Amino acid sequence: MHLTRRLCAPLSHFTRMKSLGLFAALTVLAAHSAALRASDVPAVALSSGGSMPLVGLGTWQVTGDRELEQALDAALEAGYRHIDTATIYNNEHLIGKVLKRWLSEGKVKREDLFISTKLPVYAMRAADVPDLLNQSLSRLQLDYVDMYLIHMPFGVNRESYNGVSIVAIGPNDTDPSTDHRAIWDAMVAEKEAGRARALGVSNFNESQIERLVKHSAVPPANLQVELHLFHQQKPLVEFCKKNSITVTAFSPIGSPGSKWLIKLSGKELPDLLNVPEVLEIAKKHRKTAAQVLLRHILQKGIAVIPKSSTPARVRQNIDILDFSLDDEDVASLDSLDKGIDGKLFIMKNIGGSVNHPEYPWTKLQNEATS
Ligand SMILES: NC(=O)c1ccc[n+]([C@@H]2O[C@H](COP(=O)([O-])OP(=O)(O)OC[C@H]3O[C@@H](n4cnc5c(N)ncnc54)[C@H](OP(=O)(O)O)[C@@H]3O)[C@@H](O)[C@H]2O)c1
Ligand SMILES: *[C@@H]1O[C@H](CO)[C@@H](O)[C@H](O)[C@H]1NC(C)=O
Ligand SMILES: *[C@@H]1O[C@H](CO)[C@@H](O)[C@H](O)[C@H]1NC(C)=O
Ligand SMILES: *[C@@H]1O[C@H](CO)[C@@H](O)[C@H](O)[C@H]1NC(C)=O
Questions:
Q1: What predicted TM-score, i.e. pTM, was given to this entire model?
Q2: Which family does it belong to (predicted)?
């Protein structure tokens, strides 16, 4: 265990995280001063070098110029240094503008930022990788990203994307030729060229990750996956731990802004922020329900990337380093996992994904009933 951050948290935090046995390279939980310093945010070491801050800002569905600027300013001021975006979020250019201002004013150093973006579903071909990463870098006004992820395991034709919404891609636009190993090799070439410091995958299942682990001398350093109170991903997290792959939880507070999308799958979005056990634990620690949901994940050494474009909530979501859930809280929250039944995003509406040979949740229905 190497400590890259100053140890200023009560030792109990540290030993609890250690006793969980997750991510031995996890650094230290810290600090409870009023003004959070970026250096106080715990980070996790990446197998390919460097480290990733365990709290980041999500930016999906933030496309308003002013909205994004306000959220990002609030985040950087509050100590966030990890920003998660994707080509298909259509906001890399806005993030680039804000980062450029912070960098040129000397308010933040490039090496302290951790910027993550993703290869889109319409570019799932080795030959598309250099082009798409270059486009992202140019919109972000950066020379490199800290993490480049394959966004989804399946692929659609490049021409089928209208530049606006992936939900508009038709069911016949699926591209079954997707070859993960070839795409991965192209990603590794970008890492070697210095345009991506670390590489990872998103929405891949265990066997898809395993295939890459066996294939490449540069295995995925991160899995970004849906993970929250009702879908805790215990087996997948365990698998990642064994393979030195860090985990980032997307939709960590249950994506309350995605009611419209969940409706498309014929489901109702559960309200994690009003689960009685969560409210009770929140009251006990004088924290909010969102803070309890985030802390529950963080305490397992898993990164959280909550999205908010409300400055007060942006600040609230990183203010989770000055308290610790006790064993009883953790046991109660752990027991609320619904496994596969708690999964929100099945991504069936993306260009016939469900019929693609790399659709990752084929066994979903079977497991849900077993
Ligand atoms: N790789 C993938 O396929 C994938 C898929 C989904 C998401 N992601 C990433 O993960 C990030 C987070 O996931 P997400 O956006 O789906 O959901 P989320 O972070 O779980 O939830 C975001 C929603 O919660 C609200 N919220 C935020 N903080 C709150 C607080 N303290 N109290 C009450 N409500 C709060 C936000 O509202 P306001 O903004 O109005 O405050 C927003 O509607 C995304 O933004 C994206 O970067 C990746
Ligand atoms: C990407 O950018 C690099 C460096 O600017 C350049 O060498 C390379 O040719 C570009 N690749 C593509 C496909 O545009
Ligand atoms: C998709 O292809 C099938 C079979 O060729 C056809 O019947 C159907 O109308 C097509 N759907 C769309 C949305 O183009
Ligand atoms: C994982 O993805 C593969 C496609 O690569 C699929 O065949 C397999 O059924 C998936 N596993 C589960 C558990 O859904």
A1: 0.91
A2: Belongs to the aldo/keto reductase family.
Task: Identify the active-site residue in 80, 89, 148, 161.
Answer: 89
| Within-domain flag for 362 | no
CATH number at residue 78: 3.20.20.100
* Dist CA 154 CA 174 (whole Å): 8
Q: Which domain holds residue 311?
A: 50-354
The pLDDT tens digits of the residues spanning 71-116 come to: 999 999 999 999 999 999 999 999 999 999 999 999 999 999 999 9
User: Alpha helices of the chain — where are they, by DSSP H?
Assistant: 11-19, 65-78, 92-104, 129-140, 180-192, 206-215, 234-242, 259-264, 276-285, 289-298, 311-318, 327-334, 364-369
Q: Which residues contact 176 (CB under 8 A, 6 or more apart)?
A: 155, 356, 357
Q: Is 33 a domain residue?
A: no
Which is it for strands 199-202 and 303-304: parallel, antiparallel or unpaired?
Answer: unpaired
- Taking only the tens place, the pLDDT of each residue in 116-155 is 999 999 999 999 999 999 999 999 999 999 999 999 999 9
Active site residue 89: yes
Instruction: Say if 196 falls within a structural domain.
Output: yes
- Cβ atoms of residues 115 and 142 within 8 Å: yes
Measured over the CA atoms of residue 68, residue 70, residue 75 and residue 77, the dihedral's sign is positive
361 alpha-carbon distance from chain centroid: 19
Task: Look at the block and give the residue holding tokens 């070439």.
Answer: 189
Is residue 205 within 8 A of residue 361, CB to CB? The reply is: yes
Please say whether the dihedral angle defined by the alpha carbons of residues 119, 87, 56 and 51, taken in this order, is positive or negative.
Answer: positive
Q: Which residue has the tokens 């975006």?
A: 85
Token look-up 């939709």 returns: 251
Atom of ligand 2 nearest to the CA of 131: 13
> Which one of the ligands is nearest to 351 CA?
3
Task: Compute how many other C-beta atoms are within 10 angstroms of the C-beta atom of residue 292.
Answer: 28
Taking the CA of residue 170 as reference, the ligand 3 atom at the shortest distance is 13
- Total domains, the chain: 1
Rounded distance between C-alpha atoms, residue 255 and residue 268, angstroms: 12
Q: Which pLDDT does position 35 carry in this prediction?
A: 57
